[in-house]
């Protein structure tokens, strides 16, 4: 059964692109940047996964967590790693993946900038990388590439990340069969994380267009 996903963030283009990706993969997905109206505009009792963007103030996230959990104690919260639609969609896949890798393991080796996969059985494997290319609010930009897409036999395999993947604001997702794992390759720069509003009244960031999608609009 496809999960129902709600994305709460700030950037209109990121929110809309993420919803498109999630809906294309069969989810019932919506997104909003109307933080004060989440509980009024959406039936959170029916939400399986709620994704928070990085520019949602901490006190707003806490208020929403508490309000949603009162209505739906089974919801899974996901903190978005960056404003990159493909990455956010991959984080949803990771949050809804079917448990462990049947005894296998996926590890990111930061020193070698490579992924180590240990598989007990042959399986289809996809590795995708994402990274930020512009951090100017309110519309961050990004790039992505497929690093690997093939079937691997049982055993241990090393997949290095290419030089195109930069050392900051970069991420990798590995899907083995139906299970996805997401790793941070390079952290988001402090200059970007410091832009996050500290409270609901923090208005340092520019105003953005209103986004509040409805699954009925599909």
Give the gist of this structure:
This protein has 218 residues and is an alpha/beta fold. The protein is built from five helices and eleven strands, in the order βαβαβαβαβββββββα.
Secondary-structure blueprint of this entry?
Blueprint: E1 4-8, H1 12-24, E2 28-32, H2 38-41, E3 49-52, H3 58-71, E4 76-79, H4 85-95, E5 105-109, E6 114-119, E7 123-134, E8 141-152, E9 155-160, E10 170-176, E11 179-186, H5 190-193
Parallel strand pairs: 1-2, 1-3, 3-4
Antiparallel strand pairs: 5-6, 6-9, 7-8, 7-10, 10-11
Helix pairs in contact: 1-4
Mind explaining what this structure looks like?
Residues 197-218 are annotated as: Disordered. The protein is an alpha/beta fold and 218 residues long. It has 2 domains: 4-93 and 208-217, Rossmann fold (3-Layer(aba) Sandwich); 99-190, Immunoglobulin-like (Sandwich). Helices cover 21% and strands 34% of the residues. The chain has helices at 12-24, 38-41, 58-71, 85-95, 190-193, and strands at 4-8, 28-32, 49-52, 76-79, 105-109, 114-119, 123-134, 141-152, 155-160, 170-176, 179-186. A 4-stranded parallel beta sheet has the order 2-1-3-4, with helices on one face. Strand 5 and strand 6 form a beta hairpin.
């Amino acid at each position: 059964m496809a999960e129902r996903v709600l994305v709460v963030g700030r950037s209109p283009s990121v929110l809309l692109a993420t919803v498109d990706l999630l809906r294309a993969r069969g989810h019932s997905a919506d997104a909003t940047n109307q933080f004060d109206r989440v509980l009024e505009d959406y039936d959170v009792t029916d939400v399986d996964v709620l994704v928070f963007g990085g520019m949602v103030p901490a006190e707003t996230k806490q208020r929403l967590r508490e309000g949603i959990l009162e209505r739906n104690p089974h919801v899974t919260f996901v903190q978005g790693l960056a404003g990159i639609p493909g990455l956010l969609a991959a984080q949803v896949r990771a949050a809804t993946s079917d448990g462990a890798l049947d005894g296998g393991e996926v590890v990111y080796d930061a020193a070698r900038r490579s992924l180590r996969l240990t598989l007990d059985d042959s399986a289809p494997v996809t590795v995708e990388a994402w990274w930020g290319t512009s951090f100017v609010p309110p519309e961050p930009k990004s790039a992505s590439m497929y690093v690997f897409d093939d079937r691997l036999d049982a055993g241990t395999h090393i997949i290095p990340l290419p030089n195109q993947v930069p050392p900051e604001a970069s991420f990798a997702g590995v899907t083995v069969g139906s299970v996805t794992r997401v790793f941070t390759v390079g952290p988001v720069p402090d200059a970007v994380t410091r832009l996050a509003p500290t409270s609901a009244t923090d208005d340092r960031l520019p105003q953005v267009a209103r986004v509040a999608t409805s699954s009925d609009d599909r």
